[in-house]
């Protein structure tokens, strides 16, 4: 049974489901914009969606806000201002609130960044993916390298002292030298944060149906290893599987996910995780995916498409799935506070992984070994409910 002394930290995720064009590798809930953007109607729906979530989180302050997509930067600064003002009127916010907005270089103007900042956005995440026009074309992006560079300069000129650039490697027909040149070009723009991740072919995407020619596993492994060294030498600390930051610039919103914190999810297809500390319940909720269905339903009884209550075994696995993405160690106290469970739910699995050289464990502090980080998927499989139960049974 879950027993919480206090609820976990709380964030707010807001999903914007429209893009100018769907990228062939994207499996997110995004939809090509075919008609006029329903800007006012969608902001109204988001605020109504938030109101319906309030009873479950009453009185809990919001630590971070993340506006993702899709392409939030399709929305005007006036719409973002009205949305953030509505949130302030409905929820207590921490004074040091982090507010991130995702932007694509092909959908922004220089003046818009400054207006977003005036509205209350204090962190930008720019979806660059590559600074090579050949690879941008292969990825189906609507911007070119020059626009991406301009967007980075515009973010700094608008006064943002915290912005992220999304970059990818393992692109169609990309060589190791090209991947490192791409990353070097991004670093030269001095973003405060880099998300650098491998292109994967996800189900139900155009790339899955018509796979491009990708580098082989050895090449992608070398890209990753050399890229991590390049980031480290350039002053970026890797704190998560795909995230690198200058000192003090780690994304607090994403860290809350990885630390098994709570988050409200509003918008078409948004997911949330809410802990009811008093009742000892952890619940996951998701909203209707299709924008039209979401807009219609949110004003007529709510846009929730489904929910489930986590079992203890599921919570253990989800804690591990998230927490082991971070490079930093955690303690058994962190597990107990985040999961509301006694440490005996997880220590048998940790000890087995320790014996096999995947984890270091001193009785309180848990961290990856080099082997555990290299074979992270193998480590995580040990925390799946059935495997974890077998480890607990063996200890008895």
Describe this structure in words.
The protein has 16 helices and 17 strands. The strands form four sheets. The chain has a nine-stranded mixed beta sheet with strand order 9-10-8-7-6-5-4-1-11, sandwiched between helices. Helix 3 (110-119) crosses helix 5 (145-157). The protein is of the alpha/beta class and 396 residues long. The protein has helices at residues 39-57, 77-90, 110-119, 133-138, 145-157, 176-188, 206-209, 217-233, 252-258, 291-297, 312-323, 332-339, 347-355, 370-374, 376-381, 385-395; strands spanning 10-16, 18-19, 31-32, 62-69, 93-103, 123-129, 163-169, 193-198, 237-240, 243-245, 262-266, 271-276, 281-287, 304-309, 330-331, 359-361, 365-368. It is globular. The longest helix is centred in the N-terminal third of the chain and has 19 residues, at 39-57.
């Amino acid at each position: 049974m879950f027993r919480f002394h206090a609820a976990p930290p709380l964030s707010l995720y807001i999903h914007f489901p429209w893009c100018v064009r769907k990228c062939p590798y994207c499996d997110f809930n995004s939809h090509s914009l075919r008609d006029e953007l329903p800007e006012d109607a969608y902001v109204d729906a988001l605020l109504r969606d938030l109101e319906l979530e309030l009873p479950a989180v009453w009185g809990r302050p919001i630590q971070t806000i993340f506006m993702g997509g899709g392409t939030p930067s399709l929305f005007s600064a006036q719409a973002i201002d009205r949305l953030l003002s509505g949130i302030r009127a409905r929820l207590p916010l921490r004074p040091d609130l982090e507010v991130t907005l995702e932007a694509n270089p092909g959908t922004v103007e220089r003046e818009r960044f400054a207006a977003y900042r005036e509205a209350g956005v204090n962190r930008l995440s720019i979806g660059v993916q590559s600074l090579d026009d050949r690879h941008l074309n292969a990825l189906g992006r609507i911007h070119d390298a020059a626009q991406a560079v301009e967007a980075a300069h515009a973010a700094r000129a608008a006064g943002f002292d915290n912005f992220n650039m999304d970059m990818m490697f393992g692109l169609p027909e990309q060589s190791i030298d090209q991947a490192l040149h791409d990353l070097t070009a991004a670093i030269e723009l001095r973003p405060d944060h880099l998300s650098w991740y491998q292109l994967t072919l996800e189900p139900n995407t155009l790339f899955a149906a018509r796979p491009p020619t990708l580098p082989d596993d050895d090449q992608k492994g070398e890209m990753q290893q050399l890229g991590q060294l390049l980031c480290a030498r350039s002053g970026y600390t890797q704190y998560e599987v795909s995230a690198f930051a200058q000192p003090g610039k780690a994304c607090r919103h994403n860290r809350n996910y990885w630390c098994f914190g709570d988050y409200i999810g509003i918008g078409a297809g948004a997911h949330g995780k809410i802990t009811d500390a008093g009742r000892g319940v952890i619940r996951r909720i998701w909203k209707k995916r299709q924008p039209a269905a979401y807009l219609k339903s949110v004003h007529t009884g709510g846009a929730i498409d489904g929910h489930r209550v986590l079992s203890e075994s599921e919570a253990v696995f989800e804690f591990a799935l998230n927490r082991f993405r971070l490079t930093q160690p955690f303690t058994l106290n962190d597990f107990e506070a985040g999961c509301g469970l006694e440490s005996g739910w997880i220590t048998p699995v940790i000890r087995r992984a320790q014996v096999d050289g995947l984890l270091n464990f001193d009785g309180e502090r848990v961290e990856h070994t080099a082997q555990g980080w290299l074979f992270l998927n193998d480590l995580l499989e040990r925390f799946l409910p059935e495997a974890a139960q077998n480890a607990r049974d063996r200890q008895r």
